[in-house]
C-alpha cells in the first residue's frame, strides 16, 4: 500500500510531497521504501528538488533541505517555513475556488505521465480472467480526467491524514494547490467513494479482482431468469384463454351436430318412403355447373357448339387410363371421385361460393336474364356503353357493384369487340382495391356471362384482360385475376386450362403478396379439378411444393387445406395417388433429413428444415385416410352388388352433406348482407383500408377451412368403410400365412415401400429434435389407427421390429432413433400389454447390452419414456407399471438402470402414481444387497421426495434413506449430500429442517475428524454448496437465516477451510458474519415486538436462486455509485 502511494506521488510529479513522505516514514518506524530511496539517492538530488519546487510551488522562496545528522533543528526550521507558505496558499486558494467550480473540467489539461503498475498487475494477474485483463489494460491506457485527478488527490490526502503523515499531506496540498478537507468541497455530484484502504481490502487483498464482476454476472443471470419466468406466465395465460375459446367452439359444434343428426333422421324417413324421389334429388344436387350452362345455352346456336367442344375434350382424355383391368369396386370409387370433383370443388373451395351473399345472387340472376333479350337493341346498347364510364364516376364507391349487371349486359350485346374489351377492363377496375365481397360479386357476374357467351369470347374478352392485370400495383387486383382463373376454368377449352390459365396461376404463385399466394392456392384447387390427363402433373406438383414451403403460415394452410385435396383427387384418378403424391411427400422428407443421417453427433436440425418437415408431415397425415380408402376401394374381392350398395350409401350421405351446406348458406344470407353494409360503410370513410377488411373476412372463415378439408379429402363415410374393412383384414391374415388368393398391388406397396421409406426417414432425425419426433409419432399413430389393429400388428409392428434387430455397426441404420417413434406411434394403438411387454424387454436389453444394444442407448430410452408420458399420448400408467415390475429383476445392471430412469420420469408422473408405485419400489431397492444399487437409489429417492406432498410417503422414503446411510462409506455420504442439496429449494420445510439439516450437520462434525485430507476437502466443498443452498432461500428467514443449525454448519465448514484456498475461507467467514448479523437483528426485533405469523406463501423462497452464491447485498457495504460518475 505505501509503495503504491509513493509511486503515485512520483508519477504525478509531487516530488516535495514524496520527500516529506520518505522522511516521515524514516522518522516514524524506520521504513525505507525502495522506490523513494532509489530516486533520492541519485546525484544532485537537492538541485532537482529545487527545480521542482520552483515549478509546482512558485510561492516557495526558500528551498527545503534535509540533514539527517541534525534532525531536530531542520524539523523546526521546515515547520515554520511550511506554515508560512500554507497561509499564503490558503488565501490564494480561496480567491480561485469560485473560478475553479464554474470552469469546464474538459478544458483543464493535466499532463500525467504513464503510470507503471507492472508489479501490481503481475501480483494479481493469476486471479483475473482474460476478459478482466483486457478491461484493465484498456482503462490504464486512457488519459486521466480532471475530476478523476481531484478524487485521487483527495483520497490520497485522506489516507495520509488518517495514518499520521500530516506533513506529507500538507505538502501534497501545496503541490496540487488543492485544500479539500471534505467530500463536499470537491463540488462533484455523486456518492463519496470508499477509502483507498477499503478498496484495496475488498478487491485486491486476496488476489481476487473479479468478485464484483462475478456478482454482476450472477445478478444479470438472475434478472434474465426472472424475465423468462414472467414471459412463461404470460404465455400460459394466453394459452388458457385460447383453451376457453376452443371449448366454447366445441360446445357450439356439438349443438350443431345434434341438429344435423335430427335432420338426418327426417331425411332417412323420406328415403324409406320413396327411393325414386331420392335418386332424382341426388342427381339434381350433384349436377355440375358445366351441364347447367349447357342446358341453359341451347337457345344460342354458337354457344351450344362451343360447349360441345368443352365436354368432348373432358371425356376424350379419360381414355388414357385403361379401366378394363380395374376391379368393380375401383370403377365405382372412380365415379364417386368424379362426383366429388364436380360438386364439392365448387361449393367449398375458395371465392366463398359456399357463402352466397344477397348482392351476388341478385347480380347473377340479373345477368342470367340476358338469355331472354332480343338482338335488336344494339342502338340502346351503344348509348349505354358510351355513358357507363361517366355514370360510374358519379356512383358511390360502396354502390358500384350495382352497375355490374348493366356492364355485363352491354358486354354481351355490343357488336364492337374493342368496346367489349374496354368495358371488361372497366369492370375489373370498377374498384381501386376490391375487397373480398366486391371480388365475389364481380366473379359471380363474370361466371354467369361466361356461361352464356361461350369459351371463345371468354378467352378473348375476359382471360386476356387477366393476363394484362398481372402487373397491377395493388395485390387485391391480382387476387381478382387469380379468382378469375379458378372460377372461369369450367367455361373454357381444356387446352386453355393447360396453357394460359395454368401459366397465370404459376406466375402469380411467385408473387410477394401473402394475399395473392393464398388466393393462388385456393384457385389451383379449382383448376385441377378439370385436369384429366397427366401432362401437367409435374408442374402442378412443383407449384404445390412452393406454396407449401412458403414463409407465410396462411399460404401454407391454404396449400394443405385447399390445394392438397384436389391434388389427391387428380392423382387418384390417374391411379398414382401412392406412386406420385404419397411418394413425393416421402421423397421430400428424406431429401431434407438425409444429411443428418451420417452425422455422429445428435445435433439440432436447422429451423428452415424443421418448418419444411413439419408441413410435409402434416400433409402426409392429411392424406392417410384417403390412401386407406383408395387401397380398400381397389379390393379385388368386392362384388358388384356390394359396390352398388356402397355407391347408394355414398349418394345418401352426399345429399345430406349438400343439404347441410345449402342450409348453412341460406341461414347466413342475412348476416352476409349485414356484413357487406358494414364493409361498405368502412369503405366510405377509408377506401385505402379495403385490403384489411378482406383479411378480416378471410380470417372469419378460417375456422371452416380444416373442417371442410377433412370432409373433402375423404370420399367414403364410416358406414361404407366398414363394409370394405372386413375383406381388407381377411386379406391381411392371408398375407401372413402366405395363402394369398390374388395379388393386391396397392396394399403391397403400402406394406413394403411406404413403411421402409418411412423408417428410413425416422432414422434420419436426431434424438434432441422433440418437435419433429412428436409430429412424426402422431403421423404414424394416425396411420396405424386408420389401417386398423390387424394391419398394425401383422405388418407395421413387424417392419419396425426388423429394423430394431439390425446390426448397430451398419452405417445404414440408427435403430436407437426409431425406438421412441415406434413405442409412441405404433405400440400405443395396440393393446396396452404390447407396450408393457416391449418396454420391459427393451430396458433389459439396454441394461444388459444384448442384441446390439449398448449403455449409450439409454438416452434414446429416456426420450422414449418422456414421449410416452407427455400429454399427447399419456401412457404414464404403462411406463410406471413396467418400471415397477423390473425393480425385482435379479440382474444388478437392470435395477441400476431402473433407478436412473426413475430420476428422469418421476417428475412426469402424478403424485398418486409416485405414492402408489414408485415409493414402494424405492423402499424395496433401498435394502438391495448390492451397494451400487443402494448408491443410485439415493438420488432417485431425493427426486421422489421433492415431487411428493404426502407426508406418509415422505416418511417412508426418509426411513429408507436412513437404512442406506447405515453403510458407513464416504462416497455414499457424498452422494447423499449432493442429492439433498439439489432438492433443498423445492422440498417441504418440515423435511428440510427436521431431516436434511441435522444429517448434514452430523456429516460436517464427522468430517472435521476425517484422517484423509482428500476426502475431508471433497466433503467440505459439498457441505459448503449445501450451506449456500440454504442461504439462497432468502425469504425463508425463520427457517434458514435465523437458524442456529445453519450457523453451526458454517462454523464446522470453517474448521476445514485450511484445506482450501483463501477465497473459500473468506466466503465462509462472510456468510457466517452475515448470518450472525441477521440472527442478532432477529432476536432484537422479537424482544421488542410480538412474533408475527410467517406467510406460508413465501416459504418456498426464490427458486431462481437455487444453489447460487449467497446474497452478498446484505454484507453492509454501501450501494456505491461512484463508478457511474465518470461520465458526468
TrEMBL record:
Protein keywords: Coiled coil
Annotated Low complexity bias: 60-73, 116-129, 296-316
UniProt keyword Signal, yes or no: no
Polar residues biased stretches: 44-59, 98-115, 275-294, 1082-1103
GO cellular component, one term: trans-Golgi network
Region Disordered, annotated ranges: 44-86, 98-132, 275-317, 681-702, 1081-1108
GO terms for biological process, alphabetical: intracellular cholesterol transport
Keyword Coiled coil belongs to the record: yes
Alphabetical list of PROSITE patterns matching this protein: LISH
Coiled-coil ranges per UniProt: 215-270
Cited InterPro entries: ARM-like, ARM-type_fold, LisH, RELCH
Protein name, as recorded: Uncharacterized protein
Organism field: Tieghemostelium lacteum (Slime mold)
